[in-house]
Here is the input.
Amino acid sequence: GDDGVVRLRGLPFEASKEDIADFFGGLEIEENGVLMVTDFNGRSSGEAFVQFTNGGDAGKALEKNKASMGRRYIEVFRSSMEEAKRAQSIMMGFDGMSGPMRGGGPMRGG
Here is the structure.
């Protein structure tokens, strides 16, 4: 289905969620609808997922493919909530690797 999600690639590293909202000026993005994808060091990977309030705006967002933000050309692809959630869970996974294991100690039960 079309859940209004697009994926961006090629973002400048310093791009913020506000920059992304400006890039799609006039289109309605869900509240907290921008997910910046970071690598395991927490640095921008140049990718982001954006969820629009409706499929129509997501369709218009695709027309911004190859438009520029600063000196970079941004690629815009059709995506899905599932793809965004998967990227987010991978990022959470990175998060879990930093520092000692939570809830330490041997497995209970068994």
Observations:
- The first strand starts at residue 5 and ends at 9.
